[in-house]
Automatic annotation (TrEMBL):
PROSITE patterns: NODB. It catalyses: [(1->4)-N-acetyl-beta-D-glucosaminyl](n) + n H2O = chitosan + n acetate. Its EC number is 3.5.1.41. One of its GO terms (biological process) is cell wall organization. Residues 371-386 have a biased composition (Low complexity). This is chitin deacetylase. Residues 371-396 are annotated as: Disordered. Residues 387-396 have a biased composition (Polar residues). It is found in: Cell membrane. Its cofactor is Co(2+). It is a lipid-anchor; GPI-anchor.
């Protein structure tokens, strides 16, 4: 539960001052991430975002309220004001050799990031911008599947996408930008309540390889914190780097600190350039027909955006052809997650497990901090029924979804002391019960 406290402390920190292989592979399913990153409740990771009782124990500010928005950066997060637990988790990963010593990329005038004196395709760097395919990232879908996702939401045009998907009784994954969630919070709520999956697309959409380690943590952490606090405690499992720009260092930080799986794509509609002299609807239609006509292995992971009517029209026109061509249409997160779209919940209607919150494997630090949010022993009567993104309390935890990682070296006596000195009321009793 160490990672649980990580999420809780983040808004409090902000409030004080004011989140490889080079060759193409022919395997259509997920490349292994290596060591499993789920941990049982006795691992120190859970104290980063500790919860009490059988719910997540928190009454969150309503999405869209002034209190809700005040907890998060309004623009690029300050990497000098990170929650200490995030910094500790990063330091553990670096000091144990889990973060490759890859130089920060340089960029000029919006061009692709470069690594002066280094080959971006080398196994040491493996830049996805240069199409180096790493075993630590998703590029292809399972055989026969069209793994659906959209970048850059939420947007004013999101309603149009949601309406179409609901008419067709299908779902997708939305890789969302933190500042967009703050601005278009109503569309965010509608997306969650529609049952679509929420994933991370960073806080302000930068080229991630040009950022320092701490800046990478800030971009990912604050976006995860915002989604977590706006969905009743759900923790995203997947992220997609803006412009597809990642490398071994950035991918490792996402995995080791936050448990995030990196997703790229194997086909690009370039729909972001519609109306600006780039691609056209006709070009996208032709490309899509070519992709849909090819063999079903590997599965399709097509880059699409929900930021314009034209981009959505391109998707809407292609959708019937996806089914007619014999492809199975599925939300990327639940497809790649084998039914588990979030790190601690299957979907927007399933129970939220309070122990698997942002469970990166190197969150070994202990913190003593309390959330500025009010604690709650469980949902009120108004929280029953269908979940809402605005103020959703978690249900009883499910059994472990994945086998837990190996022994952690956790000191139970120290853990109990920490719990007793930081938890209040019912949370103390619950924590003691967990450790007896």
């Amino acid at each position: 539960m160490l990672l649980v406290s990580l999420l809780l402390v983040a808004p409090a920190v902000l409030a004080v001052s004011v989140p490889a292989s080079e060759s193409p592979h022919d395997h259509p399913v997920k490349r292994s991430l290596g060591a499993r990153w789920y941990h049982d409740e006795h691992h120190p990771v859970y104290n980063l975002f500790r919860r009490g009782g059988q719910t997540d124990g928190i009454t969150y500010p309503a999405v869209g309220s002034l209190t809700w928005g005040a907890n998060f950066p309004k623009s690029t997060p300050d990497s000098g004001q990170l929650p200490q637990a995030w910094v500790d988790a990063l330091n553990v990963a670096v000091n144990t050799g889990k973060i490759p010593d890859v130089p920060v990329a340089e960029q000029e005038h919006g061009a692709d990031p470069k690594y002066p004196g280094h080959d971006p395709m080398s196994p040491e760097i493996c830049s996805s911008t240069y199409k180096c395919i790493s075993s630590a990232a998703w590029w292809d879908g399972p055989e026969g599947y069209f793994a659906s996702s959209f970048d850059d939401g939420p947007q004013p045009t999101t309603d149009k996408l949601l309406t179409f998907l609901q008419e067709k009784n299908v779902h997708t994954t939305h890789f969302m930008i933190g500042v967009n969630i703050l601005q278009y919070w109503s569309e965010f709520v509608k997306t969650f309540e529609a049952g679509d999956d929420i994933a991370v697309h960073t806080y302000t959409h930068p080229y991630m390889t040009t950022l320092s380690n701490e800046e990478v943590v800030a971009q990912l952490g604050w976006t995860m914190e915002l989604i977590h606090n706006s969905t009743g405690g759900r923790v995203p499992r997947f992220w997609r780097p803006p412009y597809g720009d990642s490398d071994n260092r950035v991918t490792a930080i996402a995995k080791e600190v936050f448990g995030l799986e990196t997703v790229i794509w194997n086909e690009d509609t370039e729909d972001w350039s519609l109306g600006s002299g780039g691609t056209t609807l006709e070009t996208i239609a032709k490309q899509m027909q070519e992709w849909l006509s090819r063999p079903k292995s590997p599965g399709l992971v097509v880059l699409e955006h929900e930021d314009s009517d034209d981009a959505l029209n391109a998707f809407i026109d292609a959708f019937p052809k996806v089914l007619e061509s014999g492809w199975k249409f599925e939300s990327l997160a639940r497809l790649f997650g084998q039914g588990q779209a979030y790190q601690n919940s299957n979907d927007n209607n399933s129970e939220v497990k309070p122990y698997d919150i942002m469970a990166g494997p190197n969150n070994g630090s202990m913190i003593m901090a309390q959330s500025s949010m009010a604690a709650s022993s469980g949902p009120s009567s108004s929280d029953s029924g269908s979940p809402t993104a605005g103020n959703l309390a978690a249900s009883s935890p499910t059994p472990e979804i994945a086998a837990n990682a190996a022994a952690s070296g956790w000191d139970r006596a120290s853990s109990l002391q920490w719990i007793l000195t930081t938890m209040l009321g019912a949370s103390v009793m619950t924590a003691v019960t967990l450790w007896v």
